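Newbie here. three chains, one complex. Structure please?
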Amino acid sequence: MAGSCEISNIFSNYISAMYQPEEAQEAPLELLSHLGKEDNVALTAEATGEKPAWFSELPYFWSKAQVLEWISYHVEKNKYDASAINFSCCNMDGYTLCHCTQEQLGLIFGPLGDELYNRLHEIISVSDELTWIIDLLEKQDMSSQELFAGSNATELGNMYTKESLEEMKSTHPFCQGEFSYVSMSPDSSDISVSGTVTSHSPNSQDSGGSDLDLDPTEVKLIFDDGFADYKKGDVKHGKRKRGRPRKLTKDNRDCLETKKSKHSPRGTHLWEFIRDILLHPELNEGLMKWEDRREGVFKFLRSEAVAQLWGQKKKNSSMTYEKLSRAMRYYYKREILERVDGRRLVYKFGKNSSGWKEEDILN
DNA sequence: TATTTATTTCCTGCTT
DNA sequence: GAAGCAGGAAATAAAT
């Protein structure tokens, strides 16, 4: 497991990967020079060749200066005629920017509006995904500490300390939110919930956080049922109805939806979920590994654990590898995955998948 | 509101 | 015998 510092850099690295400003590219200082001293301060970093200030933060938390910096970066990148921009409308912080519709951005920025809208929402969706994975792995890690308190945690491969996680949360406002103690037994591929501690901060992201934001009723649901139980549970105690499980009752759903982010990304597809785990080996706790990185061949190391993570993401505690693998097999037809004959737990990304190649990530 | 998409669930049969 | 794979069939939620 990666140390907290490494993890805290993942967001900025990921965003860096998406937004690689050409080294040779000049900082577009002159574009914003009329906007006042305060605004220019934040640009000095870029002018000196460092990463701009907005690189390491979520758009929601950008200051006005960071917003302007980000806009100017795209103006420069797209060789856009800045005279067409209504700068009087650019005086907004990240939160406001994130709530602009595509049409609004189009009105302010003209043809560049669509590009800005798309880029902004790429960052938002990527960071939400990473937040989800990090949240989940934090929970696993913390539960291991709790579960094995008194034993030597390092034997279990834990490199986090509670303090480091707390530090990470305070460093990264988007990492704030609920802690729920989920344990992943070291010798099996099972994950089970062992307890829950909830911490809220006034600015916590649980009003706008990841898919894992569980409300108390849901946490209790997991608590009561337990992941370990599902295997022997509903399926064998009378047959479950076919098809996707019914949604929660309206009350529960309303409760969840009020907690759900206004900006939560559209549900990630299974193959994207798998891809994202593979792209962050430092986070995936040995769940999966690349067999052939160039060819996109990968292997499930802990198939049931991955299935349960997927189940957690989809709020479906009865997910199993068997079901997950059925969904994976449907991807063969769509050429999102290719068959790897004769090898168990091994799959390969197909031509209709994207975002997993090293060059894709760098570009 | 109807249709489509993307799963989810269950199942049988086969392979490792 | 257990685990995994293959794929049909049906059901469902969410998106279009």
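Moderator note: The CA atoms of residues 84 and 277 of chain A lie 42 Å apart. The two ends of chain A are 27 Å apart (CA to CA). Thread marked as resolved.
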